[in-house]
Amino acid sequence: MATTRTHQTAGSQAWFGLLLAVAALAATLLLWSDARADTPAPGEIDEGQLVRLSEINEGALLIRTIEPGRYIPAPMVATDIAFDISGPVVRATITQRFENPSDAWVEATYVFPMPEDSGVDRLRMQVGDRFIEGEIQERQQARRTYETARRNGQRASLVEQERPNMFTTSVANIGPGETIIVQLEYQSVARYSDGRYELRQPLGLTPRYIPQGSDYLLASTGLANSPAVPDVARITPPILHPSVEPRDQLRLPVTITAELDAGFTLGEVASLYHATLVERLPDETARVSLAAGPIPANRDFVLTWRPADPHAASAALFIEEWDGETYLLAQVLPPAEMSDAIARRDRETIFVIDNSGSMGGASMRQARAALITALQRLEPTDHFNVIRFDNTMDQLFPEAVPASHGNIARALAFARRLEAQGGTEMLPALNAALRDADIDSDERVRQIVFLTDGAIGNEAQLFSAINDRLGRSRLFPVGIGSAPNAYFMSRAARLGRGTFTHIGQVSEVEARMEALFTALERPVMTDLDALFPEDALSEIWPAPLPDLYHGEPVTLTARLGRRDGVMVIEGALAGSMWRETLSLANAREGQGIAALFGRNRIRALEESRFQGASQAEIDAAVLETALDFDLVSRLTSLVAVDVTPARPDGTPLAARDVPVMTPEGWDFDSIREREAAPVQHARADARLFARLAAPVAGGEAERANGLALPATATPREILMGLGALMMILALIWLVTRRGERLW
Amino acid sequence: MVIGRPTHRLALGLLAAGCLVFAQGAWLGLKADIAQVLLAQSWTRAIDGESASTPWPWADFRPVARLSVPSLGEHAIILSDGGSEALAFGPTLLGASARPGEPGVSVIAAHRDTHFAFLEAVRPGDLIVVEQAGQAPLRYRVTGMDVVDAARSGIEPALGPTRLALVTCWPFGSLVPGPERYVVWAEPAARL
């Protein structure tokens, strides 16, 4: 009995031990399942110090943080822009020097503005003394190429178009203390109007009205387009919205040079907002550089030039042989005397003024001043109406009325009472303006002058309305403020067959409105056509050619079957014909004309959406064009990969792992020392780095790179298995002890 | 026989505890399945235009999309990111990621042993369809798979073209949680 009892005691002790162990394990598992259910908590970095892409108001180098979609702006990109100008053709080379001041391997993303629809067609990456040529790829493919290289520890760079006027450069695997140089090139045409060429390089980005839930809408600031008084702008800097006031300490140094070969004897050469040195060379060319060294990347650079003899620049023809084809760029100016001789026509002008909250402050003053200037210029024989809108709208008169003294006085009083408030519901106001009581009448020219900052998100809707209901009306958007949505304005002007005027400061209102009214009052050249010898023309863009306002040249690109013979340009101006014959044999050899042609074709394709083309057709055609002409577009990117791996392979895990690229343990002292380094740094905000380096709770999770992923394992199987095991053990025990009394 | 009683009591206790633990595990699976049925109803309401339709009154998330993989006959209702709770009931569109169809990466995570167990069978080239209320269905094509560390996924949701990333724990069939995640990448298939 004693032995049995001893045996039983030992057995039950063993069972008891097992039971305890199992219970403990089960309890642990239950706790574990609760504890692991959460996503790893993101770090305690002060949100105010991090930025979203939509908050960037100048070119900025961003380093990714563990907060998804949030970045640390880092002060270490120096930009050099070199323009090579030949006639109206501009070739720009943008060199971005990325320096990594940290002691970790870093991936950097640089967001910067570009002229709208610029044809970016070349990317080169310099590592040490080697250049790696970029390659155009379908956008998704380029992403994959880049990400594979990043994983493999290779240096790689990727240039993507995020918006028509906003690009990003991503550079992977910049070693500690290393500098990587990324060079991209784009092609564009200088804008010509009123006897002056203008080249605009946007350097600032400003967010526009951001609809709920969307985080990523940007437009270039496109700062003021000033009249011929350049220092006015320098004395009175453009007013930025308080919400977009730049972080001074993070401005990025930019140097700019331009080689200007205008093709005629140069007259005035000027930069609107920056002090420049103009060195005139004996061969009629000029070299332009910044007078006071590097400039901050927060304000557009605008260079203008005009011929010494105002009639010298009447026509420019450039031809490029590219990939076995002949491409032509033609810019032809109709003679000014032609339109001067024609009498003014009566007009019906509808003014639409935006008094929404985003127009508050300086913008509203500019808009009011512009409207008042315009009203005072009306003749008694003209008709007019005024519509104002925020999230509501008012029409001053039920329909357009004669511009009598009394009516004008009423309109002026109405204009002076306008205050900025409320949201921006543009569509009803646009529709009201497009409502034309007398659609077939050609007694009066019908013009809609639309004063707004374009702070809207529903462009597509507005573009469709313009396209569908334009009729005989013409739309003249006037961009107000330091940061109007230039992309919306210029596209609205093209679809509305008018012109886009830009007013950046109150001091510019009079001069800019004067230029607009010249365009409004002079007759428009219509029915433009370009004629080529038989079989010579294979494609021409834009098609059809847009109407010309006073002082504007015809600018067209074409693909030709052969390059001999003559080109005839003709148009109708108030009943009389204009005809100009140009010999193609006189065309100069140009560079990048094919890229301009491709860019124009892409723009026309994108705009065909508002004429009802299907998205799939547009996508296919845009992709094909962009690949053919090596252009960065909505659907294509440039990617460069250094085949030599740079970052050494680490542990076996790291081989499959995404490399650590967030700046860990930033050393403030070394950053300060580097301020004197050859790359000129803006002053770093030390508080920002202090936040980063401060050890925060969470340990491993804080070193995250990219989006932190949640735990996605449940203890279901292990719980079920364990439960089953416990039940089986208990049953076996009960069965083996069957002979004994239970209670 | 005096000591027989407590040991038997222990044995019965073990049996009961085993039942409980088993039920706990089974409940996780059952909850996942029941939730999807309720969600499907809520989703139908959402499609019909009822706004902010939560599947049950106290839920802190709502269905935002329906994901299906026709080649495997699998489908699931995708939830908005309402914190830790949502993952137990269905795949979740992570709050920081892009909405399907918009530029950037849409990251959808789910448990490897319930809703996303089928990811193991997904192969490059498979079609994934994402439906959202009031929009045409989006078609994605699987381009590849990755295994990444949860804390350093390298997924940058705000940048780049439209992509879809389906995320679950790795390796499949493991009983314990680990730091690794399995990512299935897909891209819009419209231009094929």
Notable features of this structure?
heterodimer; A: 743 residues; alpha+beta; Immunoglobulin-like; Rossmann fold; nine-stranded mixed β-sheet; B: 192 residues; Sortase, Chain: A; eight-stranded mixed barrel; 8 strands
Characterise this structure.
The complex is a heterodimer of chains A (743) and B (192). With 743 residues, chain A is α+β, with helices and mostly antiparallel strands. Among the domains of chain A are: 315-338 and 525-628, Sandwich (Immunoglobulin-like); 345-521, Rossmann fold, CATH 3.40.50.410. Chain A is built from 16 helices and 37 strands. In chain A, the strands form seven sheets. In chain A, strands 3, 4, 6, 7, 11, 16, 18, 19 and 20 form a nine-stranded mixed beta sheet that branches. A seven-stranded antiparallel beta sheet of chain A has the order 2-1-5-10-9-37-8. Chain A is globular, with a radius of gyration of 33 Å. The model of chain A is unreliable at 1-10, 31-49, 206-251 and 650-704 (pLDDT under 50). The model of chain B has no long low-confidence stretch (mean pLDDT 81). Chain B has a single domain, classed as Beta Barrel (Sortase, Chain: A), CATH 2.40.260. With 192 residues, chain B is of the alpha+beta class. Chain B has an eight-stranded mixed barrel with strand order 1-2-3-4-7-8-6-5. Classes of the chains: A alpha+beta (743), B alpha+beta (192). Chains A and B meet through helix 1, helix 2, helix 12 and helix 16 of A and helix 1, strand 4, strand 6 and strand 7 of B.
Please outline what is shown here.
Chain A has 743 residues and is α+β, with helices and mostly antiparallel strands. In chain A, 27% of the residues lie in helices and 32% in strands. Among the domains of chain A are: 315-338 and 525-628, Immunoglobulin-like (Sandwich), CATH 2.60.40; 345-521, 3-Layer(aba) Sandwich (Rossmann fold), CATH 3.40.50.
